Amino acid sequence: MYTYQFRLIVVGDSTVGKSSLLRYFCDGKFCDDSDPTVGVDFYARITEIRPGIRVKLQIWDTAGQERFRSITRSYYRNSVGALLLYDITNFDSFEHVSEWLSEAKKQIEPNNAVFMLVGTKQDKEHLREVPTETAQQFADYHNLLFLETSSKTGDNVEKAFAELAVRIYDQLEEGKFRIEEGWDGIKNGYSMKASTNGVNRKGPSINLIDASNESDSSTDSKPKKGCC
Ligand SMILES: Nc1nc2c(ncn2[C@@H]2O[C@H](COP(=O)(O)OP(=O)(O)O)[C@@H](O)[C@H]2O)c(=O)[nH]1
Ligand SMILES: [Mg+2]
């Protein structure tokens, strides 16, 4: 059971660690020999962001398309949150974040979205090229959430998605987003409270295929396709 579904997108240069971050968040594992050709369309996980508020995060991986900077427009348009990734050991990948940000904003408009800057591979401190303060300043200037993560140790992985989801939820409560037919950024989900006699009565936009495919446990998740 979940109250809402938020759809997110993860972008950034290839090899910054997008697939690894999603795999860690959804499967709890890290693959050193990550194969860029293993394309997974989306990952999903249900997480409790506030007591009693369970949100299903459906997260699109760009699965190779980022090589050509040709992310399908509907991926952006139907996202309510975007994670902009760079690798802390690769300054070029950080410099490209501004291009990823402007592309994402351009494609998402006229809709709104919450953006989060994520510096990956935090465990490789000895190879760091991007100072934390530099990234923090960029994030402050552009009004982005910001964290550094490691998909190897798991540091801040959970926190990154939790902070993004909470910010989206708060903005939804403040009326900054509207749940609409034809926009998949936020959908009503199944809710215990909405069910009186065991029959789900929540809104019309429930994705039955998703619900039948995926577990309801907050620690459980299943990517659409496997990895490793
Ligand atoms: N040490 C370390 N390696 C990582 C981390 N995240 C990704 N990698 C490695 O970086 C490479 C590219 O990762 P991948 O997730 O495929 O990047 P993508 O192209 O952005 O999806 C792989 O060899 C991963 O094992 C991390 O947090 N720490
Ligand atoms: Mg990838």
TrEMBL record:
<dbReference type="GO" id="GO:0003924">
    <property type="term" value="F:GTPase activity"/>
</dbReference>
<feature type="region of interest" description="Disordered">
    <location>
        <begin position="196"/>
        <end position="228"/>
    </location>
</feature>
<dbReference type="InterPro" id="IPR005225">
    <property type="entry name" value="Small_GTP-bd"/>
</dbReference>
<dbReference type="GO" id="GO:0005525">
    <property type="term" value="F:GTP binding"/>
</dbReference>
<keyword id="KW-0342">GTP-binding</keyword>
<dbReference type="InterPro" id="IPR050209">
    <property type="entry name" value="Rab_GTPases_membrane_traffic"/>
</dbReference>
<keyword id="KW-0547">Nucleotide-binding</keyword>
<dbReference type="InterPro" id="IPR027417">
    <property type="entry name" value="P-loop_NTPase"/>
</dbReference>
<dbReference type="Pfam" id="PF00071">
    <property type="entry name" value="Ras"/>
</dbReference>
<feature type="compositionally biased region" description="Basic and acidic residues">
    <location>
        <begin position="219"/>
        <end position="228"/>
    </location>
</feature>
<comment type="similarity">
    <text>Belongs to the small GTPase superfamily. Rab family.</text>
</comment>
<protein>
    <recommendedName>
        <fullName>Ras-related protein Rab-39B</fullName>
    </recommendedName>
</protein>
<dbReference type="InterPro" id="IPR001806">
    <property type="entry name" value="Small_GTPase"/>
</dbReference>
